[in-house]
Amino acid sequence: MSRRSHIEGQSFPFQLPPETWQLIFEHATGVADEVDTCKTPSLFSIWDSQYMPFVDHRAAYRRAMTLALVCRDWYELVGYLLYRHIVVDGIDSIDRIRILLLSPATVMVRKLPILHPNHRSRRFWPQVLTLIFPSVISSDLPSPSSSRMLSGLTSLFEIAPNIRHFRFENGENFLLYIIAMEIFDTLPQRVSLVELQNVWITGSCIPTTLRERLVGLRVSLDSSLKYFTSTLNFPTLRFLSIDVEGDILAPNWELPSLAVLQIRFRAFNTNFNDSMVEKLLCAAGHNLLRLDVSGKSKISLTGFMKALHPCRQLQILSIEPGTLKQDGSTCGDTKLPSIAKLVWLSSGAQDCIINSMRVAIVALPRLREVTIMLPAEGTAPDPISIKDDLITAMKHSNSSLHVSLCMVGQPSQPHEPFMSSSATSPTSRRNPQKISSTLRKRRKERTNDAIIWLGLLPILIFVPWWTITAHYQLPTPKIALFDASGRPQLSESRILSMVTELTDPLNIGFRTVGSREHALGDAWAVQQVQDLAELCDHVKARAAKDGRTVDLECDWDWQQGSGTHKFDIMNQVIYKSYQNLTNILFRISNSRPESKSLALLVNSHLDSSLPTPGAADDALSVAISLEAARVLIESVGRGEWEAGWSLIILINNAEETFQDASHLFSTQHPWAQTVRTVMNLEAAGSKGPELLFQATSEEMVWVYQGVPYPYGTVLANDIFSSGVLMSDTDFRQFDQYLLTPGIDMAVVGHSYFYHSTRDVVENIEPGVAQHFAENVLSMIKQMTFRPKKSTGEYEEDSLMQRIRKFDETPAMLYQPTSPDSSKSTSSTPPAIPSSTTSTSPFSSADKGGQQHSRRPDLVFFTLFGSKPFVYSGFTAKIVYTFWAMICTWMTVISVKKSNHKATEGVEPKGSASPIKTSRSNVSLVLASVASILISLFRSVLYANAVAFIMRKVLSKQLSWFAGEWRPVALYASPVLLALISPPFGTLIPRSVPNAMSERSLVHGALLLNAFLAVIVQSTGIGSAVLPMLLSVGIGSGVAVGLLLEWQSGENEKEEGTIHPVVYVVGSILPLAVGVELAVGTLDVFVPLTGRMPPFVPAEHIIATLVAVFVFLSLPLLPALVYRLPFSSQHSGSSSIATRANLRNVLRLACALSVVWFAFVSGWGSWPFDPAHPKRIFVSLSESLPSGEYGVHIAGMDGAAGFPPLVQGLAQVVGTFNQQNTENMDIRAAEKTAFDQWNSNWGPFYPLGVLLDHYSLVTLPNLTPGSETWREEQSFGVVVIEDSTDEAAGTRSLKLEMRHKDVIWTMLEFDARIISWSIDDNPPAGYTRHHIKEASYYGTDIWTLDVTIDLNPDIHESMRRPNTSLTLSNGSSERPGALRLTFSGMVEKEMWPGKKWQWEAEKEMRARQGTPEPENTVMEFFERISGWMEQEKGGSTDLFMMHSIVKDTVI
Fold first, then answer.
1. By CB neighbour count within 10 A (0-12 exposed, 13-18 middle, 19+ buried), where does 332 fall?
2. What is the pTM of this model?
3. Per-residue model confidence as pLDDT tens digits over 339-382
4. Helices and strands, counts by H and E, the chain
């Protein structure tokens, strides 16, 4: 840049005054507002930065031109600012301006990102047009040049569409009135602001059309305007500025909408007296909000106060004391209660100021704010002395005024505040250094904003991507059984091959307890452990052949037994009786007897649930256990591992029937008492990493740190142990009956196939088995490790020995139900004999109660797939408390910084009052904490409002079901709308400066999470790791921000705006934690909604979860939004990045997302697909001995589309095997309720309450077969013994339940039980009892001994409807008669579990030429399955069963 620039023959020095450099900075950065935001608003600025539109545009034009002359390169940046105001002073100037505006904008301007699109063309730049009446029009009559000028103005308005402000200057030509009307007629409708300066016209020159739309008017009332006195009506005028000079008459105007009035007296000799001002204020008094009076006048104080009476809404009064004549009046009873703010332009003595203030306090009883402007130059009162005297006067007057003292330069310049009444030290006067500092701060602020928005963008993209990628990352599957060096390794290929053997329906298939496939799976598992025992012998023989000794012993056992237990689920008590169920066990130990005294139990279950082959649940875990045993045995043979303590692999064969087999092992097997800790392997999904979701052993959690692919969090442990998920595992039985601590691990990703027919090996994600198996093997090696001394002897202390059961006494066992029920075929007898006594962590009444409530006093979590962070609860309390103190210290530092700024007396623009003291800042931080909590509540409320619309209004619930992340797309926008919505004014008023509100919200979020972590951890409510991680993330950003502010110097400290690095650094950890939590939770809960009944508000549950996750992920968003202005009007610019615009965008996003999910996408009508199927159940119930059929259909969710599907299915069922279907009357299905007396879904009890039930009225034409269970003695309840004690009022029965070829039977009856053979503490009172049975294949009898009360007290709610029955011999019911309902499921008639067996039998009969039975149940199921596949294209998962129900009264 050269030292001097020469343009148009004028030279400008490079050394410009500071004010010009301020303008340079403003315009060079595209900022139209003043840099000095701390200035006092001009006299005509009122609420929310609304301003009087009349400023000295010519001065602004000259300053902008000066700017352009400083450096030619800046011209392209500020051109649109230079031509915002154009001046027309001749016809030639019109032509030049037209050419300039129509020429293309420069390339640089077109590429400027800061410009609104309309600003990229010059024709959109001008906003103000000044007409300086041309001197060339001087003839007596209008000349052609005037017509040319008028046409030029018309064309100028056409090509400059943004001109809304018209100024008329220097029109003193005598003939102006001749063409004035024509000039005003050229103004387009958009012009609403008019200024008339030194213009000689009459009022009639302003046309009515212009007067009816004017918003602002500025005129000079002098002798040349004496004709401006006609009655004129300005209905829309809001701003009026009058310059009074000379001998004039008061205007006779009607001003019904006037809000701001400015009267400036230019000469003292004007005759504008009391009556004239009264007349003017009377015309504008009703709606006047602000009045400014300045200059010297003849108006008296008394007359002025009298004239103010009509101004009932006047709120701000600005007056120069010298303007009014002092007539000795003290105002008396004259009061103006509406005025709340007074601006006092004073140049008088100190006593005059104090007296004037006392008069104001009396006359203005509601006055709350006074700004006294003192001259910056010349003789002026001492501001410190004035401050002290004002405080004293206010005390004597018992007033709560807020007084600000401001230094002013010349009246036309902006005013800089000097001090407030709360200030303690004055600031220096305005100087170049101060302006330079302001410029640097403004540039720094712009840079900070760029850092925030540009820095957050990659974080918002990269952190979620990194978190999700790390979460789902799986190891590469291994195929070979040994690596390149010959070392044994886990092979996913072998694991999946075993899963295929178990789940292939042509081999084994659906292993439902009691079925033939269940027995085949049992035989397969026995063969597997026998092969492992042979491998063990082979390894020892191979070592002996090589001259080595291998200390290894392998034992296996096949346990079969019967028993009873109680199980609580869904607030229902289920009593279980199991017969001849089995367990397969395999134990690895060394030859020393003590190695078998402590054992690690690795449990998995072999059976599968009703509608599934159970590949992931739980054949995968069985195969992993067997493969881990193979690797361990091979490792012992190579000397790479030694079994210091024993390992027991339990393959239990009845978990899906409420954990019967694990109960059998825990209470009856002799090895059970050696178990010191448990590792349970489960699955609820088929993709993603294995999750440590339940833990009661601190030692095992510490060991879990060392596994190759750890993934777990104490939050999952808290959620699962709370019982919210209505799910359970064998872990409960070991916890309750063995008192052993342990861990529960499962695959949970993509649980859409959980307990469905699609749970097959093909749907298990590659790498899942390898991931799970590697962690299991690592845990086994570490838990069974026993250190040795140098002598070869074992150390006296080891990890297994340090683990303690939940009581101090050794764990004892329950006696078996039958002494012969346990059959052992192990090759080596157990090392520890069985105990003869028993104990339990629960009283006998609580046996089999709710899920365990034990939670280790330990905190553990993983992030980004890293090694878990584990520490004790005691450590957590200390660390969390210390961290909370650090957070408090950082907040105090920030508050002191704000206080330092407050002492400087800075009153930010738009603020109603200066920043308050330290106490006020603390209150503001506390208010911010409350505001953040309200934001959370509002987020949940907004999301649930959308959920209510989807569920109740549109009936489109679960439209997001087919994707775990789809709910985020639906519910994120209302949550973001809630977070950016302004807080309640009672908490953080809008008058509080943005910088202060922003800082307080950041520190509020920090303190809220820090102290919440302390409270939750100290009270033991649950784990506080989540708020702790959030506070660490936010606190890290705050700490780095404070450090950078300290390094940047004192000037930056005074700025008040929080450092941008706080958002960049402080958002990383919360975003990662929130995304990680959302991934893990939505992976479970979104598919889980497909198993929630319609009465459960699944839509609201997911909406609430998304709201919480978004809130946790973006804790700094409520503070960050304060970087944006409220609106473009408040910001003084045309920026679209405002809070108001952002809220409008989010509102639109809410509406569009609802429309998309409900209608456009089609998900609202049927949200299912083959990868995310809908579960449908069909029960063909048959009542014996009548043989009557009933068809019942049920869904397991509340999604739309099920009722029409049921009605379509009714057509298929009603026409099955009918001869003439054309004229058939197929009745619609009826919706039925499920209660405790409903026996149609007996095998599903109590889960039947989760189903949406329909019963078909038109039934199929089925031909009853000759099955054995139709015989009288093959299915039903037989009374073996029956005795009555009349004296005791009891009846004792021995019942035998027979169920030939029927499984999953259930006995139901209503009675008050005195005693029975289930347990020692039967339910109290008269109630409904449900006893569910599970038996091994071929076992078809079970018994019950029961004694009932003959005369029980029956509550009305327990009376069963339609109970009048007769006994089997035909006699009427007698007292003590017992009505029994016995139901079950036909073993050979389940779909699709028996589909392949039925097809194989059909093929065999076809080969043998045996005739096919007609109208069979399986044909009926095949017809329904085919229709469903055709109707929904594989998007349903269908299970059908043939249930038998028989009522007996004894």
1. exposed
2. 0.72
3. 767 776 665 555 666 666 666 666 676 676 777 766 655 555 56
4. 37, 37
